[in-house]
Amino acid sequence: AEDGYDLWLRYAPLEGEAREILAGLSLHPDVPDELVSDPTIAVAVAELERGIGSLIGESRTTPQTRFDIDFDCRNEDVGGIPGAYRIARLSGGDGLALTAPDSGGCLYGTFALLRELSLGQDPRVVDLVSAPAMPLRMLNHWDNPDGHVERGYAGRSIFDWWHLPERLDERMIDYARANASIGINGVVVNNVNARAFMLEPRYIAKYKRLADAWRPFGIRLYVSARFSAPQDIGGLETSDPLDPAVRAWWKAKADEFYRAVPDFGGFLVKANSEGQPGPQDYDRTHADGANMLAEAVGNRGTIIWRAFVYSETDETDRAKQAYAEFVPLDGQFADNVIIQVKNGPLDFQPREPFHPMFGAMPNTKLMLETQITKEYLGFASHLAFLAPMWSEVLEAETGRGGTVAEVVAPAGIAGVANTGSDRNWSGSDFDQANWYALGRLAWDPSLSSERIAREWAVQTFTRNPQAVETIAKMMLDSREAVVRYMTPLGLAHLMATGHHYGPAPWVCDLDRPEWNPCYYHRADADGIGFDRTASGSNALSQYADSVAARWADPQTIDREYLLWFHHVDWNARMHSGQTLWEELVREYDRGISEVDAMAEAWNGLAAAVDPQRHRAVAENLAIQQGEARWWRNASIAYWRSLNGLPMPEGAAPPP
Ligand code: GCW
Questions:
Q1: How far is CA 531 from CA 110, 376, 569, 605, in A?
Q2: What is the pLDDT of residues 590-634, one digit of tens each?
Q3: Do residues 312 and 512 lie in contact, with contact meaning Cβ atoms separated by under 8 Å?
């Protein structure tokens, strides 16, 4: 059944000439003796055979020519970057040479070859060289030990802690294949809001089973650690990072992990954020806390320390807090510490400017944290392809020596996973594309969204060129449509409290001021928007001068950040000649018509996509059409209750 379980690894049978060509070749993975017992190579060969068998489909009819795939996986010619590969015509023979410095490179090369073949490429002309742009390409699971996934919209957790270590769900292997196919090489298996008992020996045994299963796929396992574990499970009176007993406890804990999992990746820590314990509870800094753990793991692993911190005590602007706490610590973090920074300064909104910490800590390794699961973009029911959003951040010029992609290149990218127990893994077929895109962009941030959308659509849905064209267009326009009907022109955080699904811009009276949508839109009778310039919170000053200069003037700022940085009169004239109010309403209406266009385009694809998935997507689009209107109508009704303005001429009727 086409229920989406196979993700982009469907290897749907080729047709026509592409099939003739592949079926006419008798493929031989040629593995040198010293590699035959290498589990990663075994995985690569098995995938190659599975993929090609499936691409050819029915039994072979054509006469066959021998075609070797020469595995040359200890070859430094490709450059020493782990995971790099080259695929080229075998000199003096019919076949391909797959060259890599390590087994991982051969595995990635195998998946790249299969991708090319799935796209209909003639194997005899495949010619590829590739190396990952950054060492860490991770998924962070916000999965709890009881099976609930925080911000998960695809069912229960895929990790079966109850039955591990004895029982390993076959799904763990398919999960590893999917990750390896897009270059993901690190997985944090539990929520950053961590339970300390997940550091106990009974869990370490479960991690060992998973790590052993994933190792051949080049995936290292990481665990989120609760900072107060020395007290929670260790019987100590304090978790002060400078206390010798605390340090010894973590050292012993790390040793325990490494005895079971020799290539254990390390710990991910959310500290002093949203009620989590941390070093500041003892008047110590983030650096004190991170460095203590870094010492415990030593050169065996990495501490990934999150910069997502804010508290109600900062009344001026929550968006400023991370920069304020972390930037003064630049240069104080140990070499094996990475600071993980969300793409924007607030919290995974449909659009935010890039986080000002990028570029501001030249002596610290920074990693980009993105959210694949769509907490603020309509969960798994709205279609929003996120590659354009991530590229927007990766390509942003920090004004301090490079783009965000360049700043994070020495460390990596993490995506908060959107996987769950649903048959289709991600809660909807199109959400699989976001998992795919995260891996592809972490491997190569210069890949265009269009390329990613197309190659995903071909592998996932169909090779019919018109259909691919249509699907790619739907995907490429989708995120902007969500921005338009939810939070246009730089607005943010207008979602209902807690669950974050649907609009609630009218909520103004929550105890935590920075949880109120009113805190973010600051709308009143005269205008709307958050003044983050010098006359307001001055969050703008956290950016490099060249960037701040571009955004300081409401007349010249990129329109999509207007209300993020400025409070603007409803009647102010925009470049279009329209007032802000008119333009805002137009954005909502445009968002709706874009969703309608997606639904219509999809209806036209009934013949090109299998009925099961066609219907599933169509049903989600119907939900999205209704909810885009809900967002638009609720928002407009609320803004009008403040500004008393009539509906602009030509706009759809008022709610
Ligand atoms: O996006 C917010 C979420 C929380 C999450 C937090 C974080 C894991 O609403 O559910 O907690 O961010 O990133 O720590």
A1: 51, 23, 12, 45
A2: 999 999 999 999 999 999 999 999 999 999 999 999 999 999 999
A3: yes
Asked whether residue 476 is domain-assigned, the answer is no
- The pLDDT tens digits for 222-279 are 999 999 999 999 999 999 999 999 999 999 999 999 999 999 999 999 999 999 999 9
Measured over the CA atoms of residue 386, residue 387, residue 392 and residue 395, the dihedral's sign is positive
**498 is a domain residue:** yes
φ and ψ at 29, to 5 degrees? -70, 120
Q: According to the model, what pLDDT value does residue 252 have?
A: 98
Q: Which residues contact 611 (CB under 8 A, 6 or more apart)?
A: none
- Is residue 262 reached through a cis peptide bond, with omega within 30 degrees of 0 on the bond before it? no
Quote the number of domains for the chain.
3
Is the model's pTM score more than 0.95? yes
* Cα(102)–Cα(44) distance, integer angstroms: 12
Q: How far is CA 417 from CA 158, 175, 187, 207, 589, in A?
A: 11, 12, 9, 18, 31
Q: Is 17 a catalytic residue?
A: no
Residue 515 Cβ inside 6 Å of ligand 1? The answer reads no
Whether 421 maps to a domain, the answer reads: yes
Ligand 1 contacts CB of residue 347 (under 6 A): yes
Place of tokens 């329209």: 578
Rg from Cα positions in the chain: 26
Choosing from 402, 434, 454, the residue where a domain stops is 454
204, 296: one domain: yes
Is residue 269 located within the same domain as residue 375?
A: yes
Expressed as residue numbers, the domain containing 82 is: 16-130
Please enumerate in sequence order all residues whose Cβ is within 8 A of that of 553, keeping only pairs 6 or more positions apart, or say none. none
347 is catalytic: yes
CATH number at residue 76: 3.30.379.10
Q: Where are the beta strands (DSSP E) in 217-311?
A: 220-224, 266-269, 302-306
What angle is formed at CA 94 by the lines to CA 88 and CA 95, rounded to 5 degrees? 40
CATH at residue 322: 3.20.20.80
Tell whether ipTM is more than 0.90.
Answer: yes
What residues have CB less than 8 Å from 16, skipping those under 6 apart?
none
By most ligand atoms within 8 Å of CB, the mutation choice from 190, 273, 305, 308 for ligand 1 is 308
* Burial classification of residue 274, based on how many CB atoms lie within 10 Å of its CB (0-12 exposed, 13-18 middle, 19 or more buried): exposed
The CA distances from residue 428 to 98, 343, 628, 646, in Å, are 35, 24, 18, 39
Asked if residue 36 belongs to a domain, the reply is yes
Q: Which residue has the tokens 């929670």?
A: 232
CA of 164 to the centre of ligand 1 (A): 27
- Residue pair 184/412 in contact (Cβ under 8 Å)? The answer is no
pLDDT of 316 reads 86
Are 363 and 503 part of one and the same domain?
no
Count the Cβ atoms, other than its own, within 10 Å of residue 341. Answer: 29
Q: What whole-number distance in Å separates Cα of residue 342 and Cα of residue 572? A: 33
The residue nearest atom 12 of ligand 1, judged by CA position, is: 347
